[in-house]
Design goal:
Layout (H helix, E strand, L loop, with lengths): L2 E3 L5 H4 L2 E3 L14 E3 L24 E3 L12 E7 L8 E6 L4 E5 L9 E2 L13 E3 L8 E3 L1 E2 L6 E3 L7 E7 L2 E5 L5 E5 L3 E4 L15 H6 L55 E3 L6
Antiparallel strand pairs: 1-2, 3-4, 5-6, 5-8, 6-7, 9-16, 10-13, 10-16, 11-12, 13-14, 14-15, 15-17
Organism: Candidatus Falkowbacteria bacterium HGW-Falkowbacteria-2
Keywords: Ribonucleoprotein, Ribosomal protein, RNA-binding, rRNA-binding
Subunit structure: Part of the 50S ribosomal subunit. Forms a bridge to the 30S subunit in the 70S ribosome.
Length: 278
């Protein structure tokens, strides 16, 4: 992927940057692997808004992506690298030897025509192959890592993300996360060799509010710009401090920097917490 700039013939395009899609080899999705994405605008089954600032956006299809990679010991050929509007990474279309087709999250630099495989045993350490984390040498970048065996990939699925194996001891492997956190996962957890594709996505500048609306993101209003009836930070003439010891959510709960992790059984698997924000 590359980043391209366009002629600044309007204010909205002056600072905007765009994806050049140079790594895309197929522009229409596989019909058997898509479903219609239904819009909820952040509302639950009762019609109440549970996620704010959602709504509108372009119509799109959901690509059914295989996060479990549970088709073991059957070779697959990378048929195409495609764009997925629902995630930052690219997706790869695999044609298996038995005729089945599946999408996976495409690792960076995965070439079309490459033969890859998923196995519960040791296979060649090359980009796109999937195997338990116990077989990955220390220092090799991996993506789409499971946290529980058989539950599907949960970690390092985003654009440009990767985790690194620090070592394997006993029942667990030590993993360094993108945040810097070091934690244990069971050595039977599956992972894919390589860094997740499209690392340049972080450098794209939207340039105007309309591009956010196309993505289904509605405007966010500062609490301090509201009235006191609408937000704990509201009220006052002109710019005012919030007038509270600590920031709060619109519902009066503590916000910004408050610890949200409750007692969880997985806490004991964290060896080193991620670095604190400065």
């Amino acid at each position: 992927m590359g980043i391209k700039k366009v002629q600044a013939n309007t204010p909205g395009r002056r600072h905007a940057t765009f994806d050049d899609f140079a790594d895309i080899t197929k522009h229409t999705p596989e019909k058997s692997l898509i479903v219609i994405k239904k819009k909820t605008s952040g509302r639950n089954s009762q019609g109440k808004i549970t996620v704010r600032h959602r709504g509108g956006g372009e119509k799109r299809f959901i690509r059914i992506v295989d996060f479990k990679r549970d088709k073991f010991d059957i070779p697959a050929t990378v048929a195409a690298i495609e764009y997925d509007p629902n995630r930052g990474t690219r997706i790869a279309l695999l044609n298996y030897a038995d005729g089945e087709k599946r999408y996976i999250v495409a690792p960076a630099n995965l070439p079309v025509g490459e033969k890859i495989m998923s196995s519960k045993n040791l296979v060649e350490i090359k980009i796109g192959n999937c195997m338990p984390v116990e077989f990955i040498p220390a220092g090799v970048a991996i993506n789409c890592l499971e946290l529980e065996p058989g539950r599907g990939a949960k970690v390092a699925r985003g654009a440009g993300n990767a985790v690194f194996v620090m070592g394997v001891e006993g029942k667990y492997a030590q993993i360094k996360m993108p945040s810097g956190e070091i934690r244990l996962v069971k050595k039977e957890c599956m992972c894919t060799v390589g860094q997740a594709s499209n690392a340049d996505k972080r450098h794209i500048t939207l340039g105007k509010a309309g591009r956010s609306r196309h993505m289904g993101i509605r405007p966010t209003v500062r609490g301090s710009a509201m009235n006191p009836v609408d937000h704990p930070h509201g009220g006052g003439e002109g710019n005012q401090s919030i007038g509270l010891r600590h920031p709060k959510t619109p519902w009066g709960k503590p916000a910004l920097g408050v610890k949200t992790r409750r007692k969880r059984s997985s806490t004991k698997l964290i060896i080193k917490r991620r670095a604190k924000r400065k």
